[in-house]
C-alpha cells in the first residue's frame, strides 16, 4: 500500500538501526528469494561488498541455490548452497523479498534461526515482522540498498566500477529499462551517479539477459496451444500430461513461463492482462501463478493476495494447490470471479481509457 511508504525521517531511523545491527553482528547471512533475478543478485552483492569493505573483520556469507545467468562483479563470492540451514548467524538479511516463504524450501532450517532479522525490499506486500524493515518501495532492492550505503557512509562510500555495474544491472532489470511505474526521479539521479563512474553497455546486457535455453521452445509451444482468451484477459497453463508426455524439463518450463508471461500474454490485441500457471517443482500438486497487467487496466496484486500471494500492482504471483494445471486455473478463475463481485476491490469489466 502506498500509505505504508515510510517517511524520510522514519527511514533514517531504520537505516541507523540496520547499521547498528550490522555493527553488532559478527556472522551475517544474506539470502534472497528463490530463482534470484538480477535485482536480487545485485542487491545482495552490493551489501556483501559494503560489509566486507567497511567492516572487514566480519564474516558475511551470501547463500544462493544458483548462480546468475550472466557474469556479475563479485559473483565468485556467492556461496552456492542447495539447503540453507541455521548455523552461527547472528543477523540474517533477507533482500528483495518480504518474508521467508518465497526464500526457503522445505529442507531448510534457516527460518527457525534465533538471529536478528533484517528485511531490505521494494515490494508492496507487507512481509514478516523483522527487527528492521527497509522498504521505501523504490524501483528495486538495488536502489534501496545503494541509498542505504550512501546514506550511512556519506562520502566514505565509494562507488567503484564493480558497484556501478551491479547498481545499473539491478535497476535496469527491475525497472524494465526505466519503463515501469516504479522509476522515480530519484532512480534517474542514482543512475546518473552510477553512469558517471562507468557506462555499462545496457543494450548488450538486455540482449544477454533476454536469451532463453532451446529446451524452452517445446514448453512455449504447449503454453501457446493451451492459451485461452476471455474478454480482455488471457491465461495459459501446463497439465501434468503435457509435462510427462513431452518430457518437459524444469529449466525449459520455467523459462517458457517467463517468455509467455513477458512477451505474449498481454501483447495479443484486445488483451490487457492475464496469468500463466506452472508447476512449483518443490511441493507435489503445488502450482505457481504469475499475474501481469498493462498499466491502468487491472490491479493484479489484490488477486494474488486473495490467493495468499502478493507482489506489485501490475505484476504479482501466488501459489495454488491443485491436482493439475487446469484445476489450478479453475481455482484462480473462481477467485477472480469472487473479487469482481466484491464491493471493496471491483475488477474492471472493460478496459480503462488509460493507454
Ligand atoms: Mn526486485
TrEMBL record:
<dbReference type="InterPro" id="IPR001667">
    <property type="entry name" value="DDH_dom"/>
</dbReference>
<dbReference type="InterPro" id="IPR051319">
    <property type="entry name" value="Oligoribo/pAp-PDE_c-di-AMP_PDE"/>
</dbReference>
<dbReference type="Pfam" id="PF01368">
    <property type="entry name" value="DHH"/>
</dbReference>
<feature type="domain" description="DDH">
    <location>
        <begin position="27"/>
        <end position="171"/>
    </location>
</feature>
<dbReference type="InterPro" id="IPR038763">
    <property type="entry name" value="DHH_sf"/>
</dbReference>
<protein>
    <submittedName>
        <fullName>Bifunctional oligoribonuclease/PAP phosphatase NrnA</fullName>
    </submittedName>
</protein>
Amino acid at each position: 500500500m502506498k500509505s505504508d511508504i515510510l517517511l524520510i525521517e522514519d527511514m533514517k531511523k531504520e537505516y541507523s538501526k540496520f547499521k547498528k545491527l550490522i555493527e553488532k553482528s559478527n556472522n551475517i547471512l544474506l539470502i534472497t528469494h528463490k530463482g534470484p533475478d538480477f535485482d536480487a543478485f545485485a542487491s545482495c552483492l552490493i551489501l556483501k561488498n559494503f560489509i566486507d569493505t567497511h567492516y572487514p573483520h566480519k564474516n558475511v556469507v551470501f547463500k544462493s541455490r544458483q548462480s546468475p545467468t550472466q557474469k556479475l562483479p563479485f559473483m565468485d563470492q556467492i556461496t552456492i548452497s542447495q539447503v540453507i540451514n541455521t548455523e552461527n548467524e547472528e543477523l540474517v538479511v533477507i533482500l528483495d523479498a518480504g518474508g521467508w516463504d518465497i526464500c526457503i524450501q522445505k529442507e531448510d532450517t534457516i527460518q527457525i534461526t534465533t538471529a536478528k532479522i533484517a528485511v531490505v525490499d521494494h515490494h508492496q506486500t507487507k512481509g514478516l515482522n523483522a527487527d528492521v524493515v527497509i522498504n521505501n518501495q523504490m524501483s528495486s532492492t538495488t536502489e534501496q540498498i545503494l541509498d542505504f550505503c550512501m546514506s550511512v557512509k556519506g562520502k566514505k562510500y565509494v562507488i567503484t566500477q564493480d558497484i556501478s555495474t551491479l547498481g545499473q544491472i539491478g535497476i535496469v532489470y527491475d525497472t524494465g529499462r526505466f519503463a515501469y511505474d516504479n522509476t522515480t526521479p530519484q532512480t534517474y539521479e542514482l543512475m546518473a551517479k552510477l553512469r558517471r563512474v562507468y557506462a555499462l553497455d545496457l543494450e548488450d546486457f538486455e540482449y544477454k539477459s533476454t536469451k532463453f535455453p532451446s529446451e524452452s521452445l517445446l514448453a512455449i509451444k504447449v503454453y501457446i496451444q493451451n492459451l485461452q482468451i476471455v474478454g480482455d484477459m488471457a491465461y495459459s497453463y501446463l497439465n501434468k500430461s503435457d509435462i510427462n508426455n513431452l518430457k518437459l524439463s524444469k529449466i525449459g518450463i520455467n523459462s517458457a513461463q517467463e517468455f509467455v508471461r513477458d512477451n505474449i500474454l498481454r501483447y495479443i490485441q484486445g488483451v490487457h492482462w492475464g496469468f500463466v500457471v506452472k508447476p512449483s517443482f518443490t511441493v507435489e500438486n503445488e502450482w505457481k501463478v504469475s499475474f501481469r497487467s498493462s498499466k491502468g487496466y487491472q490491479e493484479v496484486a489484490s488477486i494474488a493476495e486473495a490467493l495468499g500471494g502478493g507482489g506489485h500492482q501490475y505484476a504479482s504471483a501466488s501459489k495454488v494447490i491443485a491436482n493439475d494445471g487446469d484445476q489450478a486455473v479453475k481455482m484462480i478463475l473462481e477467485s477472480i470471479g469472487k473479487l469482481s463481485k466484491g464491493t471493496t476491490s471491483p475488477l474492471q469489466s472493460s478496459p480503462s481509457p488509460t493507454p
